[in-house]
Amino acid sequence: MSLKRLTAALILAAAAAAAAAGNIAPRDGWAVHETSKPYGQLINDVKAAAKAEGMGVVTQAGPTEAAAARGITIPGNRVIGLFNNDFAVKILALSTAAMIEAPVRIYVTEEEDGSATLAYKLPSHVFAPYTEEGGAELKALADQLDRRFARIAERAEK
Fold it and tell me: Is the bond into 38 cis (omega within 30 degrees of 0)?
């Protein structure tokens, strides 16, 4: 094997190893739900649960398919941004700066055993830096979003 090929193979192996850093550990301000569902099914179930809870899928992004196109295999990895216009209008009335946090994201990751994990930052955690500006009303909206995201997670896990 030539030095160039060996170097390329080592780089690809290192990139794949780095991309598979393991399960998302519980952390402050996050909700982490390990499931037995396969990655693709959990993505579909998150979208269906969001719709059932009155939230729209605003964005989706993930490196898995782009990495595969480059010849790198990494576990499934998708960020799904959820929000709705009712929350957007209410939050904008309280803090223009807070809207940088919308949509609130759910993160679906594929685990080594084929199962998938659903994780997200609690909306109350995401919007906390803006409560001085948005006051108790913004905190109440973030708390409502906490409950809605918990219901989305619960529905998606079933």
Answer: no
Residues in the chain: 158
Q: pLDDT means per 10 residues in the chain (158 residues)?
A: 48 44 84 96 98 98 93 95 97 97 97 95 98 97 98 96
Q: Write the CB contacts of 146 (distance below 8 Å, at least 6 apart in sequence).
A: 122, 123, 124
Place of tokens 């803090």: 95
For helices 131-157 and 85-94, angle between their N-to-C axes, nearest 10 degrees: 160
Dihedral sign, CA of 56, 59, 62, 65? positive
The answer to whether the beta carbons of residues 150 and 49 sit under 8 Å apart is no
Q: How far apart are alpha carbons 116 and 124 in whole angstroms?
A: 24
pTM higher than 0.90 for the full model?
Answer: no
